[in-house]
Amino acid sequence: MKLIIITVGYRSGEHIKQLFESLKKQTDKEFSLILINNSQDDSDEIKKLSEQYSFVSFTANPINSGFAGGNNIGIKKAAENQADWLVLLNPDTHVENDFITGLKKELTQRSGVVGIPIQEENKVVYNGTVEWLKPTLRHSDILRDIRMSYAIGGAMAISREAIQKIGLLDERYFLYFEDADYSLRAREQGISVSFLSQPVVSHAVSASTKKLGSSMLLRYHMRNALYFNHRHAPWHYQLLIPFWSFFVGLKQAAKIIIGRKREASIAILKGILDFHLDHTGQISGFTKSRIKLGIECENLEDPKSRWGVGHMVLNLLEEYTKDKSLQDKYELHLYFKDFVPNDSVLQNPVFKKKVIGGRFFNVFYHIVLPIRAMFDSVDWMFFPAYMLPPLYFGKSIVMLTDDVYHEYRHGSLPFRYRLAYGLFTNWAARFAEKILCISEASAKEVSRLYDISRDHIFVAHLGTTSKGVAGAGGPFEYLLYIGQMFPRRRAYESLLAFDKIAPEFPELKFILVGRDKYDPPHIAETVALINKKLGSERVIYYDYIERDDEIASLYANAKLFAYISSREAFGLPLVEAAGHGVPIVAKDCALNRELFADAAFFVRDEQNIDEIAAVFKEGLTDTVERKRMIEAYKTLIPKLNWQSFAQKFFEQIQTH
């Protein structure tokens, strides 16, 4: 009898030597072993070990093709060598000295598929038992040869004739249920499936599969259970599969909401989704060279809304394109609602760009986006726009700010926006893997307002591309405001303060750039009234300026920059202005002290028009302070750069 053992290893070095040693001591040495190594991490080490045993033939699998795929390589090789019997043995098993002798004796009286008993911990199991609509399979310590029993893949013999009729193991399982599937396929072909009482194989239970982690095991179990039932269950059970998967999914969703075993529930839900999306074989994320990161990019589609979130995302993507080491570690999937904007960085082929549609924003963001991201099997998802969709069950980073909290609690946005922010920022606070804050001051407030552990939050300061050098000056001097004009940012109060000082500075103008977010809008009306009162166009208002170089020129040539916001998570316009060497007027608060120390003209009461006017005058006339601040910016601003932001961001993914 020509008997060939097939063993598939995956990082099994500590166990496989014990198997080899037990086989080396066999009294019957008429056998050989084909070792398929599914891991490239220890391939050289396992090859050297294999070369010490004359009966071992080593094959390095260039990919991890799982239990079924690895064994199929061995089965093909054994068939080429005209083996009478193939014996599948797990790498974390070992046998007694007379194992081959006893096995050959038993197999001479058998045919088809034969289950070999396995010592698992404190009991011997003889076969597995199929139960319909169950996510797992049971190993039985009672020797029963019934139709619902199957040969356990960890120790199973298959005759040459059976292989020729049944074929190979089904690689769509990758891991789990493929042995039960094979026995049922054998019976469907009229091939015998039987079970031995001797000899016994000793097994260290799931030593290889433990390396996947419990969540991945649950995901494989759930997906493969559904697939197995779909293939083999009686028709009346198959009718129940949609209801079963819905019931299990509903149960897991409830556990996620109440915070009970959330990671396990997410894995089970992913398994259900894998089945219904026909994701078979290896699940992405088990072995791969790069981490898949998805980024929600709808905020880039409207150029007029790119002031904060969009600006941050674009610069993060820019840094990724510049850093080959980031490209080697991370694969970025960018999700757009309607179209990919024509920014040069977005045309870079290093990104995998997806336009996924959804007529309404809420449909796109809360339904289509999370389902597509899970369909793509991304490892992480970045939601920069503050909200975590409840239908997304994977690892996520969500940016949160104290601004958005105050906006939904006390702001002037329409009720539907406040409701969405209230629901989904709190969902993010509870269920996101990590919370991104863009300043220490904001992190402290977010932790307090949303009741989040500080350990759950990481801080990455936003950056600026300017170098701290002022422009050469324009045709006239001007005070500058840039940013969307929410009431808290005091554009209206700044206009009234300018109106007060304008007669003292007859050559000074005030340029404002940004969308009017007051309810109702009244910036344009106020500008017109002030210009009429002053008798000339002293205030210039732009709703939007598209070109970045024009914005940069406005910053660089300004006399003074005003952005007296009551609260901000970061206040990027102030950083940009300081980066261009322009003295700034800002609210005296923890954030601005964190970023600028004392290098600003501070306003204590941002609603006091007279105080703002007085600080404007000081900022325009105090040449000593202006010079000191401009020098300070040359030290402060280089510390705030997009490269540092990107490094801190990607570090969070790498370390979790």
Characterise this structure.
- Helix content is 43%, strand content 17%.
- With 656 residues, it is of the alpha/beta class.
- It has 4 domains: 3-210, Spore Coat Polysaccharide Biosynthesis Protein SpsA, Chain A (Alpha-Beta Complex), CATH 3.90.550; 213-276; 291-459, Glycogen Phosphorylase B (Rossmann fold, 3-Layer(aba) Sandwich), CATH 3.40.50.2000; 478-640, Rossmann fold, CATH 3.40.50.2000.
- Strands 3-2-1-4-12-6-13 form a 7-stranded mixed β-sheet, with helices on both faces. A 7-stranded parallel β-sheet has the order 17-16-15-18-19-20-21, sandwiched between helices.
- α17 links the parallel β22 and β23.
- α9 (241-258) packs antiparallel against α10 and α17 packs parallel to α18 (523-534).
- The protein is elongated, with a radius of gyration of 33 Å.
Count of strand segments: 27
What is the beta-strand fraction?
A: 15-25%
Largest sheet geometry? 7 strands, mixed
Q: Pick out the low-confidence regions.
A: 207-213
Q: How confident is the prediction overall: mean pLDDT?
A: 91
Total domain modules: 4
Q: Outline, from the CA principal axes? A: elongated
Top-tier CATH class of the largest domain: Alpha Beta
CATH architecture of the largest domain: Alpha-Beta Complex
Terminal Cα span = 52 Å
Write out the strand line-up for the largest beta sheet, numbering strands in chain order.
3-2-1-4-12-6-13
Cα-atom Rg, whole angstroms? 33 Å
* Secondary structure category: alpha/beta
* CATH fold-level name of the largest domain: Spore Coat Polysaccharide Biosynthesis Protein SpsA, Chain A
Q: Helical region count?
A: 24
Helix content: 40-55%
Domain Glycosyltransferase 2-like: 5-166
Protein name: Glycosyl transferase family 1 domain-containing protein
Pfam families: Glycos_transf_1, Glycos_transf_2
InterPro entries: Glyco_trans_1, Glyco_trans_2-like, Nucleotide-diphossugar_trans
